[in-house]
Amino acid sequence: MTGTLVLAGTPIGDIQDAPPRLAEELAGAEVIAAEDTRRLRRLTQALGVQPAGRVVSYFEGNESARTPELVEALVGGARVLLVTDAGMPSVSDPGYRLVAAAVEKDIRVTAVPGPSAVLTALALSGLPVDRFCFEGFLPRKAGERLGRLREVAEERRTLVYFEAPHRLDDTLSAMAEVFGAERRAAVCRELTKTYEEVRRGGLGELAEWAAEGVRGEITVVVEGAPEKGPEEVGPQELVRRVRVREEAGERRKEAIAAVAVEVGVPKRVVFDAVVAAKNAAG
Asked: Is pLDDT above 70 for 228?
């Protein structure tokens, strides 16, 4: 029988947030793949656990090369535990490649749910949480960063980002440029740690604050784009859109109804524009 891959969440700050099952899995796994073996050692000492299994490093630099080795262990029946420095594996951390490879081999994959900076920041932000999307880290280069932000400029869901403290002011300034200085956001710093801080305000205001220098692990939560009202389209544009649809084969009545829905105005407004254009043409 094949083994089991276990993704285990680890504390993002306070060691007391460690899931109860984490100690059990650390003690019983035959292989522990850790993003940083030194941090794993500190974690096991804090939890009072002595791992019996083999410990290997599994980080961005060796993820591709080490994945086949871990899959081989899983195929051989081993229970492999994957832990990262903080939070859930695979969420902007090593893990995706191993999970995908295990799934391809029909190997069971399960998890020890644990702390997540994404969900913690989202909950503390004071922004809508019913719909959100996680964007991870933005590109380091200014042009690429602006391009990525423009891709989600009209996104209605709340946005969640990770960012390095030394790039935070540039990122918030770029967000203010693309999303607008008044768009609400929250900068969550050192979550669950001694100096935890959640700074809320408009993006422009937060960018000014960050320019003074910020330290620690950072998660940024940004309000989604506001809902648009009816599109402001003049009579000439309404007529043009109707003609485009007519030329594509739609009957005038159908074209008028479709344009009215598209623009968000009563059908009578579109109809009157079409009639007025016809009368003007003689």
From this structure: no
- Which residues contact residue 247 at a Cβ distance below 8 angstroms, ignoring those fewer than 6 apart? none
Distance, in Å, from the CA atom of 39 to the CA atom of 86, rounded to the nearest integer, reads: 10
Residue for token pair 């096991």: 44
φ/ψ of residue 51, rounded to 5: -60, 135
Question: Other C-beta atoms within 10 Å of 222: how many?
Answer: 26
Classify the C-alpha dihedral 66-69-75-80 as positive or negative: negative
Q: How far is CA 160 from the centre of its chain?
A: 5
Instruction: Name the pTM for this structure.
Output: 0.78
DSSP for residue 164:
-
Output the CA–CA distances (angstroms, integers) from residue 142 to 149, 151, 173, 182, in the order listed. Answer: 11, 14, 11, 21
Distance CA 123, CA 117 (A): 10
- Tell me the chain's radius of gyration from C-alpha atoms: 26
**What is the band of 247 on the pLDDT scale with cuts at 50, 70, 90?**
confident
